[in-house]
Specification:
This protein is an alpha+beta fold and 412 residues long. It is built from 15 helices and 16 strands. It folds into two domains: 254 residues, Bira Bifunctional Protein, Domain 2 (BirA Bifunctional Protein, domain 2), CATH 3.30.930; 87 residues, Anticodon-binding domain (Rossmann fold, 3-Layer(aba) Sandwich). β9 and β10 form a beta hairpin.
Length: 412
């Protein structure tokens, strides 16, 4: 029955794949903590306005990809398609303007109704950071350095490339918008329907178009750097100088943009050629007007988000899971359960051999990749002892039950 299959674009994270996901998430969080970021957890769904106002009423995410529904009270609710809007809403509703600067890390599932493909699902997972309340380009440098640290600690420094660009300040952006609109207007009839609709409202989004005809037109378009004010040029120079000082390699990509009006100054992506067409694994930028757009106080911000599925596809085998100790009861099973619980309280990972003869229970211990087996037979019980078998070397020894935790601790 189809109802017993996962919904298209979703899949189960069974223990082995879940271990890879958890490793990616924990590596990101560990790095973020070293940079002074604390974890924030926002709801998986929000009022639809939170995303419509931040992502733009005409964006593909809002018009085509969001999972939106009316709840029982008639409110329009949306499953979160990304993390930044929820963090910004939490900043406003939580009255956190007095707590700036804020350094926040988030992780969890996101939802977009798009065509599933390699590394892209309808329910996917992200890790991300937001640094709120700092106007200085030093914030941009630190946030990008954190992204580089996360990717490096996942072993991906040699598999990704940092592309960076500037979107300038408001004056630069307005000048560029006029220049770009003038250029693109020459090709109005050749643009795709979506791009014609965007030409007046938000021409920068045309630079992101996936239409092949649009791409050819965009190749000859003017670039943002030609419209930068001196202040915006200096801001970007500080960012690139800082990355160079920290030894973080990058290339300047003048076609890299963020189409929403509240983005400014730094935009960046870490891309890879190892995932086919879906090459971006981490992306971010500065958004000084976002919170004001949502009705809060003007609060500068910069952040990034990374796809956990894509990162987990790129990483080599993560560190092996802790090898357990197998407790094999060959007599009093309740007594064996008590021994297993003692070992767990002492910090050991324990697999309990629940049923079957000795051969079957040992086979299950080997399948679980157990390092040692603790065998509780009737004769050992009479001597208040257990047998510890080394499942790698095959040797075994009898150990007093009273000193089992201490003895196993030395062995492990």
């Amino acid at each position: 029955m189809s109802s017993l299959q996962p919904v298209r674009g979703t899949h189960d994270l069974l223990p082995e794949e879940s271990r890879r996901h958890r490793w990616v998430e924990e590596a990101a969080f560990a790095a973020a903590r070293r940079y002074g970021f604390g974890e924030v957890m926002t709801p998986i769904f929000e009022f639809t306005e939170v995303f419509a106002r931040t992502l733009g009423e005409t964006s593909d995410v809002v018009t085509k990809e969001m999972y939106t529904f009316a709840d029982r009270s008639g409110e329009s609710i949306t499953l979160r398609p990304e993390g930044t809007a929820g963090v910004a809403r939490a900043f406003i509703s939580g009255g956190l303007a007095q707590s700036l600067p804020l350094k926040l890390f988030y992780r969890g599932p996101m939802f977009r109704h798009e065509r599933p493909q390699k590394g892209r699902l309808r329910q996917f997972h992200q890790v991300g950071v937001e640094l709120l309340g700092v106007e200085s380009p030093l914030a941009d440098i630190e946030v990008i350095a954190l992204a580089w640290r996360v990717l490096s600690e996942l072993g991906l420094a040699g598999k990704v490339r940092l592309e960076i660009n500037t979107l300038g300040d408001a004056e630069s952006r307005e000048a560029y918008r006029n220049t770009l609109t003038a250029y693109l207007s020459q090709f109005r009839l050749s643009l795709s329907e979506d791009s014609r609709n965007r030409l007046e409202r938000n021409p920068l989004r045309i630079l992101d178009s996936k239409d092949e005809g649009d791409k050819r037109i965009v190749e000859g378009a003017p670039v943002m750097t030609d419209s930068l004010t001196p202040a915006a040029r200096e801001f970007f120079q500080t960012v690139t100088n800082g990355l160079g000082m920290l030894g973080i390699p990058f290339i300047i990509n003048p076609r890299l943009v963020r189409g929403l009006d509240y983005y400014c100054h730094t935009a960046f992506e870490f891309t890879t050629t190892s995932l086919g067409a879906q090459g971006t694994v981490l992306a971010g930028g500065r958004y000084d007007e976002l919170i004001a757009t949502m009705g809060g106080p003007r609060t500068p911000g910069i952040g990034w988000a990374a796809g956990v599925e894509r990162l987990s596809m790129l990483v080599d085998e993560p560190p092996a899971a802790v090898r357990p100790v197998a407790v094999i009861p060959m007599g009093d099973e309740l007594a064996a359960m008590h021994v297993a619980e003692r070992l767990r309280r002492a910090g050991q990972t324990v697999e309990m051999g629940f049923s079957g003869n000795m051969k079957k229970r040992m086979a299950r211990a080997n399948k679980a990749n157990a390092r040692f087996a603790v065998i509780l037979g009737e004769e050992e019980a009479q001597r208040r002892a257990v047998t510890i078998r080394d499942l790698d070397g095959g040797s075994q020894e009898e150990v007093p039950l009273a000193s089992l935790e201490e003895h196993l601790g030395r062995l492990l």
